[in-house]
UniProtKB/TrEMBL annotation:
Pfam families: Aldose_epim (PF01263). It comes from the Eukaryota. The keyword Isomerase applies. It comes from Arabidopsis suecica. This is glucose-6-phosphate 1-epimerase. One of its GO terms (cellular component) is cytoplasm. Belongs to the glucose-6-phosphate 1-epimerase family. The active site is at 163, 264. One of its GO terms (biological process) is carbohydrate metabolic process.
């Protein structure tokens, strides 16, 4: 509504890159860079940052921004011929003031869009529109709704992930649950397939796994903070769990790996097909709750 819209602020972020700040009445906020359509910050009512931005993030197109929530489309990682993780994380998105209607219970939100450019069509010959709504809910929860429309004359397939760098007290003090007994492709071993027999995932070295056919809800339990990050996804059956540990990542500070884990909602093993004129929709909903509460 108009009232919600007035709360959004358009401002300059690092290196003068445009960003939108959305806020609710209790002081919670999220920030989104138009470069990449990338959420760079999500704060609760105490001003606590719930996502991690690399201390060495570059904020210089065409380098992707290291942190927040990158949008990986139309190709996850190096699973096809495109640049790794596709290209929309390196494109300038626009604010869309009158998007096609989307039911929403948000207290504040912003709608962004990116369309295939002529340059994009040379590397991926499919016309598309990608709409992203970033919304804060009544409990300060964060919802990203992705809508991918095929504006071309033939069907296309894509793979996809949203790649949140979730803030944790310390990578050694957390576990990820919800993936017990599931199969995963180990991305450090040429995507060899294994079954995860551990009840929960703990971290003490580099880990990079693509879990297949996962439940809609996954949880990151932070023992030190006594908080649980509840990740709920719809329309994306896979999930990636990644922490680089001491592996060299040029635009990541040496200690940064300790402060985050990525649990990514993904559609990789079975690419998504969209027919001409049709739209695919996927949702990522994240909330942070006290660990003793069953959300
Ligand atoms: O460095 P990038 O391109 O942002 O990718 C970061 C990570 O993204 C994850 O999705 C992959 O599983 C990792 O293999 C990769 O290292």
């Amino acid at each position: 509504t108009a009232i919600e819209h007035r709360r959004n602020e358009r401002t300059k972020g690092v290196n003068g890159l445009d960003k939108i700040i959305i806020r609710d009445r209790r002081g919670r906020s999220a920030e989104v860079y138009l470069y990449g359509g990338q959420v760079s910050s999500w704060k609760n009512e105490n001003g606590e940052e719930l996502l991690v931005m690399s201390s060495k993030a570059i904020f210089q197109p065409p380098t992707p921004i290291r942190g927040g929530i990158p949008v990986l489309f139309p190709q996850y990682s190096n699973t096809g011929p495109l640049p790794s993780h596709g290209f929309v994380r390196q494109r300038f998105w626009e604010v869309e003031t009158k998007p096609p209607p989307l039911p929403s219970l948000s207290t504040a939100h912003v709608d962004l869009i990116v369309r295939s450019s002529n340059e994009d069509l040379k590397i991926w010959p499919h016309k598309f529109e990608y709409r992203l709504r970033v919304a804060l809910g009544h409990d300060g929860d964060l919802t990203l709704t992705s809508r991918v429309k095929n504006t071309d004359t033939k069907p296309f397939n894509f793979t996809f992930a949203l790649h949140p760098y979730f803030a944790v007290s310390n990578i050694s003090e957390i576990h990820v649950e919800g993936l017990h007994n599931l199969d995963y492709l180990d991305q450090q071993k040429n995507r060899t397939r294994f079954t995860d027999h551990e009840k929960v995932i703990t971290f003490n070295a580099q880990l990079d796994r693509l879990y297949l056919s996962t439940p809609d809800q996954l949880r990151i339990v932070d023992h030190k903070k006594k908080k649980t990050i509840v990740v709920h996804k719809e329309g994306q059956v896979d999930a990636v769990v990644w922490n680089p540990w001491d592996k060299k990542v040029s635009d990541l500070g040496v200690e940064d790996y300790k402060r985050f884990v990525t649990v990514e909602s993904a559609a990789v093993a079975k690419p998504i097909t969209v027919n001409p004129g049709k739209e695919w929709k996927g949702i990522l909903h994240v909330s942070v709750v006290p660990s003793n509460r069953k959300a």
